[in-house]
Design a protein that fits this description.
The chain has 2 domains: about 180 residues, Up-down Bundle (Growth Hormone, Chain: A); about 170 residues, MFS general substrate transporter like domains (Growth Hormone, Chain: A). About 80% of the residues lie in helices and about 0% in strands.
């Protein structure tokens, strides 16, 4: 492949990661508007929000099978268009049922694209001959930061939610149009199975992904609660923890491919897991705010390269075709994001948040240790 074409495919893959990150973050500032418009209380809103996760989890394995048959390009275009069409509907859905239906379509589009973009990334990384997955995943975070900032700014300027969503979708269409010609059209052989239950090394990688995403989900949903309720940080400053985590993760992923290249994937996972475990220990047992915030930074540094390295391992294993392996570990990983915060809540209810966060630190150490036996 010509160097110019390879670079174009790499940039287009970064755009493929940025787009669903942007779309997901664009929805977050709209949640209060949707809640008020539909008259939902907190409990019912939580149930409606499950539609987004349900759409994602159901669409991922289907998207992987379709991508194997029709190529990554076609499926990424269709799924991104689903998300772009659903986004304005989220701004005008008049009832809980309509909101749930729009969230299901939106979640299916974003989740399916998340799955297929990793399939594309595995192919592009393998052809480059060097680690690139951390950098690709960094652009998902960058898309999220841009989306959250842009949508929040427009809403603060009193632009209507519907117009904000239309503008966001138009911007996504423009980036899609620039990138689409460089997305892959590789197809699986005609005799390749459409679905398969993950087994062997793929199942092991998927379980590790579940735990790694569980840790990330814990930061998303529980970091502010922990700072406020356990460490008595004022509520208006409780978001500092997640901010430190997110910045550290994004920067580390931008630079992480060099680290993975020097250490190798197994050592990078082990080191990252141990650093994250130390971070969880700091935020749990260091009462002053500054050491606690340093803990959030360490969690971001540690978690940053674990999931990208696991996806690269899934792309290099021979037990299952990557068109089956990538959807399997993506689905298991996102199950960790959805189930993790709930598990933390159950454990905290039975004991305490301190015990729950300590348990996450322990399982991060286990990720590092067990990853040594996952050979591809």
């Amino acid at each position: 492949m010509a160097p110019a074409q390879a670079r174009a495919e790499q940039h287009a893959t970064r755009a493929a990661f940025l787009l669903p990150g942007f779309a997901t973050a664009a929805w977050a500032p709209l949640v209060p508007y949707a809640k008020n418009r539909t008259g939902l209380d907190e409990g019912t809103l939580g149930l409606v929000l499950l539609c987004l996760g349900a759409g994602s989890l159901l669409a991922m394995p289907i998207a992987g099978a379709l991508a194997a048959r029709f190529g990554c390009r076609a499926i990424m275009v269709i799924t991104l268009l689903m998300a772009m069409v659903a986004l304005p509907l989220l701004a005008i859905a008049p009832s809980p049922w309509a909101l749930g239906a729009a969230l299901f379509v939106f979640g299916a589009g974003v989740g399916a694209c998340d799955c297929v973009m990793n399939m594309q990334a595995v192919i592009v990384e393998r052809e480059s001959g060097r680690p690139m997955m951390s950098n690709f995943h960094a652009f998902y975070s960058i898309g999220g930061a841009i989306g959250a900032a842009a949508i929040t700014t427009l809403l603060s300027m009193r632009v209507s939610p519907l117009l904000v969503c239309v503008l966001a979708s138009a911007l996504m269409i423009a980036l899609l149009a620039v990138s689409v010609r460089w997305w892959r059209r590789d197809r699986a052989p005609n005799d390749a199975p459409m679905f398969a239950v993950p087994h062997g090394v793929v199942l092991a990688i998927g379980v590790l992904c579940f735990v790694a995403f569980l840790a990330e989900g814990t930061m998303l949903d529980w970091s502010a609660v922990f700072l406020h309720e356990v460490q008595q940080v004022p509520q208006d400053r409780a978001g500092l923890g997640f901010m430190c985590f997110a910045i550290a993760m994004t920067v580390t992923r931008l630079l992480g491919d060099g680290v993975v290249a020097r250490l190798g994937r197994h050592r990078a996972i082990l080191l990252g897991a141990l650093v994250a475990a130390v971070g969880f220990g700091l935020i749990t047992y260091a009462p002053p705010l500054l050491p606690a915030l340093a803990g959030y930074v360490l969690i971001g540094l540690g978690c940053a390269n674990i999931v990208p390295a696991l996806f690269s391992m899934a792309g290099n294993q021979k037990a299952m075709p990557e068109s089956l392996a990538i959807p399997a570990i993506t689905t298991l990983g996102y199950a960790g994001v959805l189930a993790g915060p709930a598990l933390i809540g159950f454990v905290a209810q039975a004991s305490s948040l301190v015990f729950a966060f300590t348990a996450v630190a322990v399982v991060m150490v286990l990720i590092g240790i067990t990853s040594r036996w996952v050979r591809v």
